[in-house]
Amino acid sequence: MNRSQALLATFAVLAAAFFVNLISGAIPARVDLTEDRTFTLSPGSKRIVGRLEESVTLEFFVSRSDVKLPARYESYSRRVETLLREYVAASGGKAKLIITDPKPDSPEEQRAQRHGLSALRAPQGSAYLGLTVQLADTVKAAPVLDPSRERFLEFEVTKLIASAARLERPKLALISSLPITTPSPQGGEQQPGPADVLLSELSQTFEVITINTTAKELPAGVSVVALVHAHHVDEQLAYAVDQFLLAGGPVFAAVDPLSRMQKFAQGNMPFMMAPMALTAASDPAMIRAWGVNVEMDAVTADGDASLTLGGTRGEVSYPAAFAAGEGAFTKDSPLTSELRMLAFMEPGALSLISGAEKRLKFEPLVTQAGAGVGAINVTAANAGPFEKVAVGFKPDGKPRVLVASVAGEFTSAFPKGAPKPGAPEPTPPGQPPAPVAKPHPGPHLAMSKKPGRLIVVADSDFMMDPFTVRQRQVGGQVAAEPINDNLGFVVSVLETLGGSDELVGLRTKGTALRPFKEVDRLEREAQARFQAKLDEIERRLEEAKNKVAELSRQSGGVSAKGTITVTPEMQREIEKFQKEADRLSQEQRVIRRSLTDDVKSLGRGLQLGNLFAGPAIALLFGLFYTLARRRKTS
User: Fold this and answer.
1) Which phi and psi (to 5°) does residue 218 adopt?
2) CB–CB of 88/97 below 8 Å?
3) Span 500-513, pLDDT tens digits
4) For the chain, what is the largest distance between any 2 Cα atoms, rounded to a whole number of angstroms?
5) Number of C-alpha atoms within 13 angstroms, CB side, residue 150?
6) Is the bond preceding 364 in cis, omega lying within 30 degrees of 0?
7) Which one, of 117, 120, 113, 124, lies nearest residue 66 by Cα?
8) What is the DSSP string of 336-398?
9) How do strand 250-254 and strand 222-228 relate by DSSP bridges?
10) Mean pLDDT across the stretch 282-309?
11) What pLDDT does residue 137 have?
């Protein structure tokens, strides 16, 4: 092969590389090389959109023309758009993406506002970065897509799609020994119940079915079971809940060593002052049989984060009523990553039963730690008063888990199988006979049929209205104002459990923003090299400026008109120090520029590498091809 043939072959290779790059850009295929597979949908999200039965429209509202998003949001919007296109690709044609630029005073902006999207401040006006998911007449919206929550972007989008695709509200079975609802009295107005606000919030997502602990079975079609301070639960009902969990059903359990709401119900007086009650503790037997231990002999306390309660002699700082701050929450779960404060009232502590770690994964969601953490004996806390209990509290500094997510293979709390129905209770005169308990459908499960999901909280008071909201009169109506994150946390947990299996198991993804480790290293080294010199220059510069200011204040004499005069000697001194200050300032600017020289050099090298890497690879391929042909010919 002569030189002209070699050049022709090289040109052909370069042309082929150009057209391959052009064609690949038009084909929606790519490789995600990020560390956490940031731009790839999780298998759970793919299954959710892959099972869509009706077409769903994803409308991405992003300001890009008349009003520009702040730079941070603009960069993030590209990441969001890329992820949304992944949903469309995984849906099998069931999902459609519409990108809308809501210009000021346009129908698109009005539609964004109608769907509840929030405007962001921008120099040109109101900007938008939000998402709506529409299926038929159902529209779900994410008012603002915040870059600080990038790790939870896929979770939130998938949850939005799953919520819109669910045409019927899932059923939530709420089993409690507490008087969750207050019956209407004869001839009077209904008094507010201790969980009216909680039930109202849950009713927006669920069909809430409150079940007394004396019931015999779970309603048909239940999606989530919530055990809220449940004790003396009928064996038939307990068995139904046990088999529900082992069949893969999600369970939320609020187990309390000392329920103030229970004491209030028994004592019929303010819960702060209620008398001792023997049944103020939940029944932990079933939870323990599943493999989770709840400390019932002591309540967790924290003297450094205690809340103020009303005692017998006025307000008192009570260690067993405390606030869990941001340091207590795990940042790897979307349920707790954005929490600011949860308030607890005499909670217990959670752990796994010895040996259960082989089959269960125990993930703490809220852990109270610090020098002020300790425990108070339940008997002492129950006897009170708060002042006496607070004085006797001695912290031990041991961290305690208050909320945990448990997943894996659970064992049945009924190893011998379904309990035999007990004798029916006598029917009061004039009342219809109680329905006979039906046998539990299906074979007995001794172990989980598929991995179960259990979220346990070592407190039940924390989710009741007196501990979550402040109610006040606004325009003749009662408005509930949250006083902490308790209500939102409980609702979020139950909504997540009420989603599909894939949604519950969806983990937080990484972020597309990566640290420039080499740049950080170069900056640290440059800072170390020049910092001493910079400090010396800044010291001398400060001295020179102070000298100029001092000389300027001094007078060489006062004229007849009272004006200050400066002598020629003083003027020369001022100019001398002013020149010194200018020189030092210039030297300081040079050194500060030197701090970034290595970083700029690295950037130029990377730019050149990116520019010439492709042609160089193509050229090398052409040369190897030419040599191989020449060797074959010879």
Assistant:
1) -85, 145
2) yes
3) 556 555 544 544 44
4) 118
5) 21
6) no
7) 124
8) TTT---EEEES---EEEPTTGGGTEEEEEEEEE-STTEEEEEHHHHHH--HHHHHHH------
9) parallel
10) 91
11) 84
What residue type is 236 in one-letter code?
Q
Give the helix/strand (H/E) hosting 580: helix 568-595
Tens digit of pLDDT for each residue in 528-567? 666 667 677 777 777 777 776 776 666 544 444 444 455 6
Residue 5's nearest CA partner among 631, 620, 630, 616 is: 630
| H or E element that contains 533 | helix 517-553
DSSP 428: P
* DSSP code for 319: E
* 3-state DSSP assignment of residue 125: strand
Q: What whole-number distance in Å separates Cα of residue 628 and Cα of residue 355? A: 65
Structure tokens, 359: 């089959």
Assess contact for 504 and 334: CB atoms under 8 A: no
Cα→Cα distances 594→33, 495, 533, 591, Å: 34, 55, 12, 5
* DSSP, residue by residue, 49-116: HHT--S-EEEEEEE--SSSPPPHHHHHHHHHHHHHHHHHHHHTTT-EEEEEE---TTSHHHHHHHHTT
Q: Tell me the CB-side half-sphere exposure of residue 548, using CA atoms within 13 A.
A: 15
Q: Is a pLDDT exceeding 80 seen at residue 425? A: no
As given in the structure block, the two tokens for residue 384 are 């009170």
Reported as type and span, the H/E element at residue 264 is helix 260-267
Whether 101 and 62 have beta carbons less than 8 Å apart is answered as yes
Q: What is the mean predicted confidence (pLDDT) over 378-404?
A: 91
Which is more confidently placed, 271 or 481? 481
Which DSSP helix (H) or strand (E) runs through 21? helix 3-26
Q: Contact 518/602 with Cβ under 8 angstroms?
A: yes
Instruction: Give the per-residue pLDDT at 269.
Output: 45
Return the residue matching tokens 């000298």: 547
Using the Cα atoms of residue 607, residue 609, residue 610 and residue 616 in order, give the sign of their dihedral: positive
pLDDT at 627: 78
Cβ atoms within 10 Å of 261's Cβ, excluding its own: 28
Query: What pLDDT is stored for residue 3 in this prediction?
Result: 62
Coil, strand or helix: which one is 579?
helix
**Residue pair 486/463 in contact by the 8 Å Cβ criterion:** yes
Share of the chain above pLDDT 70, in %: 72
Q: For residue 353, what pLDDT band results from cuts at 50, 70 and 90?
A: very high
197-233: b or e for each residue (b if 16 or more CB lie within 10 Å)? bbbebbeebbbbebbebebbbbeeebbbbbbbbbbeb
The model's pLDDT over 86-132, given as tens digits with 9 standing for 90+, comes to: 999 998 899 999 999 998 888 999 999 999 998 888 877 789 999 99
**Whole-angstrom distance, CA of residue 447 vs CA of residue 442:** 14
Q: Which helix (H) or strand (E) holds 246?
A: helix 235-246
CA atoms within 13 A on the CB side of 238: 23
Cα end-to-end span (Å), the chain: 10
